Amino acid sequence: MEYRYREQKELIKGELGNIPKSWNQAKAQYYFDVFAGGTPSTNEPKYWDGDIPWINSGEVQNCYITNVSRYITNQGLKESSTKLIPKNTTVLAMTGATCGNVGYLQFDSTANQSVMAFVPKYSYNSKFLYYYLMCQSQQIEYYKTGGAQGGINVDNGKKLYINIPLDEEQEKIANFLDKKTSKFNSIISKKEALIEKLEEAKKSLISEVVTGKMKVIKNDDGYDLVKRSNDEMKDSGVEWLGEIPKDWEVNKLSNIAELTRLAGAEYTSYWETDDDGEIIALRGQNIGINELNLNNIERISSKLSNRLNRSKLYKGDIVFPCVGSIGKATLIKEDNKYHINQNIAKITHNDKIVPELLSYLLNSNECHKQITWFNSSQMQPSVLIRDLRQFKFALSYDKLEQVEICEFLELKLHYMNKILNNTKNQIQKLKEAKQSLISEAVTGKIEILD
Q: Mean pLDDT in the chain?
């Protein structure tokens, strides 16, 4: 199935741009019953764990909806505001982070009040609507209220303008996009699987080297990695750590570093963000594995940073989230640029360890095992500073060996990160190409040929 680009003379002006002369446009309310779902009382066990699917807005992710996490009973359906949504219906997330996301139901279902359903009144192809709404972020954004976590309501949904090709053309476009997007999704999935494998390989490499199970040997061409023999190893005395090199020792984190957090009283009494501030206040979302993500940042003034000097960051310090996105550590490489925000630990090495190695230790699988062990929250991962100080790591006191370990890991990880970044860029380009093709098809810029 091929396609061609329509010429300008084949188009006419519509409400939202040019459309083919044979198409119409109208508000969704004239072609669809538009309604939101509801939630049966969670205090009534008799309403839950039945056999009727119930979706929430978080499950609407711009794809076919093939399964759900919760079910309600027939009584829950009858005695609540939720409604039954037929199979092959397009739904739209109305609120929060997923606002504007679209889904296509593969089964009869119900939904919560943050999901809007579009059930055709006439012979409109619901799958065509699914693809069309994927490209209507501007329309949806126009009606959205409440800021980043705001949303739209059912009345807004009824007012959305939709394109109306002839019935047979709707079906032809929907089938064309099914085939094309399936190919895109297959390629993207394979590349995402590659990224997952590379991330696991990075963690495994770091752990094997920083625990001493593999020895870094410097040579004229760079470095070799050699497995240590049993004769070179000893029992660490720590069950999950296993054997370590005979000349290494197990250390608590408090023996090799000083740990600090922004005190609650400091935050309550003094903390104030400043969009024009000179200092970036790092949050958990900004901290990756040995890298900072500065796309969405908070700032504070230099004056405030200096006043809260205990939690100010200097070159050589390490930042480590203690709540939520825990388990990632980044080495700070500049003075007078960063400060820790709430729930972030500032970790300052002492003379027993080079800071680069400490950062690798905090990103290792051995650190993640201890996070699981010391997790103090049922809701989200959380480690108290007093427990973080008890984390144990194997360590060589030979500074030259520490430096060689870091140099080896930097070289290897640089190569792996280059592949990762290239793959991520490829995925982004594939997603953009997929979205562009969908848009061109549902707005009539291209004609699907037989």
A: 93
